Amino acid sequence: MLQDPTFWALVALVLFLLLMVYLKVPGVVTSALDKRADTIRKELDDARRLREEAQALLAEYQRKGREAETEAEEIIDQAKREAEAIAGEATRRLDEYVASRTRLAEQKIAQAETQALQEVKALSADVAIAAAEKILGVKVKGPAGEALIARSIGDVKSKLN
């Protein structure tokens, strides 16, 4: 048995294992593995926490994006309403302006008609007076004729004006 290499391999293995236990190598290895496991666990916890924070931030930014879209739609709707109101006001003012200008033009036309009618009456009165003067001047002569002409001219003037 002492000559058997398997026996010596077994003895060497047992001595090696005893030496390892005596030097507390399994404890050191276990301690190192535990430290490594704790480090990995901390990194996983940190990664999980960071992931949750990232998801929370993503959710917040998505919510803010929806709020911004809603606010933009409200601003657009308000701008449309204001534009419609301004257009309505402009149309109303334009209608008022056109109506005012039309009334002014009608008043000017009425004044021009009145003035033209007065001018025509005055002209026709002058023509009638001149005609009456000629007719009476030819038919009636002398001081009685002149008095009659003056009275007739006064009558014609008062009736035509």
Can you describe what's shown?
The chain has 161 residues and is mainly alpha-helical. It has helices at residues 5-22, 25-139, 143-160. α2 runs antiparallel to α3 (143-160). The relative contact order is 0.03. The mean pLDDT is 87.
Summary tags:
161 residues, mainly alpha
List the helices and strands and how they pair.
Elements lengths: L4 H18 L2 H115 L3 H18 L1
Gross geometry: rod-shaped
Largest sheet: none
Measured between the Cα atoms of the first and last residue, the distance is 169 Å
- Overall pLDDT level: 87
Fraction of residues in β-strands = under 5%
> Using only CA atoms, what is the Rg?
62 Å
* Unreliable spans: none
- What is the number of helices? 3
The percentage helix is over 70%
Total beta strands: 0
Summarize, please.
With 161 residues, the protein is mainly α. The protein has three helices and no strands.
